[in-house]
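Weekly structure sync, notes
Attendees: PL, DS, HV (note-taker this week)

Item 1: Integrase catalytic domain-containing protein
DS walked through the input record. Source organism listed as Acinetobacter tandoii DSM 14970 = CIP 107469. Sequence as pasted into the shared doc:
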Amino acid sequence: MSDKEIQRLAVLQDVRDQRITQVRAAEILNLSTRQITRLLQKLKKDGVSGLTHASRGQPGHRRHDEAVKSECLSIISEHLLGFGPTLAHEKLSSIFGLNIPVETVRRWMTANELWIPRSKRLKRPYQPRYNRDCFGELIQIDGSYHDWFEGRAARCCLLVYIDDATGKLLHLRFCEAETTFDYMLSTRAYIEQYGKPLAFYSDKHSVFRVNQKSSQDSQITQFGRILSELNIDIIFANSPQAKGRVERANRTLQDRLIKEMRLEGISSIAEANAWLPSFIEQFNQKFAKCARNSKNLHRPLIESDAELDDVFTWQEPRKVTRSLTITYDKCIYLLEPTALNHKLVGQYITFMEYPDGTVAITHEGQKINYSIFNKLSGLQQNEVVENKRLGSVLAHIQQQHEELEKQNKRTRAKKSMPSRKAQKAVIEQRNLNPVLDCCN
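Item 1 (cont.): predicted structure, written out as tokens:
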């Protein structure tokens, strides 16, 4: 019996023993007196079993036939072994003509051990892996947001490059946000100092990986394109634990680096970036280890400085209109009306934006002269470029809001203060009151 039926039995026994009336029992059980009478008759006729629901223990009216169930399980065992319930349901419906609800299929497969629910599966063990053998074989990169200056400056991000084989810090750089342009600057500084590694190991940040599903399977990010041109692979970690070396380094830096900068009196990103090389040298002397193999797998740079400048850019294709114009970031660029440029009408050319904010237009490696036509927006070129750096723009907007709020407070304070004439009248009235009191 259910708790509800047990409660009814206790109340009905009190009615039968004349301890309470039927009206009182109806109030307790929230039933009508006629229903109480019927329940008393069932209790008298059938005993306690008369109060239980008659359908309890009986097969459901919408149940599937045992023959259908056995046929379904035999098909799954023979033809769909290893299929999940959802896929098995689709194949049973499309191939074998068995229209059985997916949850029913799931329940049958679980009961017959053809499917193990996720909650009952053994958790996959993540065993530790050995570090790589050679220096430059795998470089772990990550960005760490933190209050690095302990309130002396705004919160910022530290880009960390660490070698997997030796644990050496190879590059550190403070920046306002973890953006593509900041990774461009840091990666170029790193490869100019050490050369090109075999691979980078990163998380699935949008700088490194296109996370939105698209029909273009070969779509890569701007940073991925740069590494591809430099013949450097990039590997994505599925969890923070997978790139544990750089995560542990971040935790160590959030302790040691902060205190070192406090002792040095550093309170800005520019000062910190200028001082970081000396900290990296001290850190590596204390924590770096020798690799199992002494071979250095960094490859020398073949590209010249001019070629590197063009590689580390934000590149997007743009179609040339009949009026020899292209549009990029709310700005119209006018191409020179030369005979060669007229042949580019209807074709796609490359628009390149450099980390320092300058832009260039190229086609098949050749630079194209241009001028800017600011009809779409009154912004200058550098203002358009700054809009791509969201962190600095938001900081500027926040500063403007704070200045506006201070100005509004000063305006409200001036309005609430009485004028000089009113203050003078109050003072004269205060001086006059004692004289009037004496005269009275």
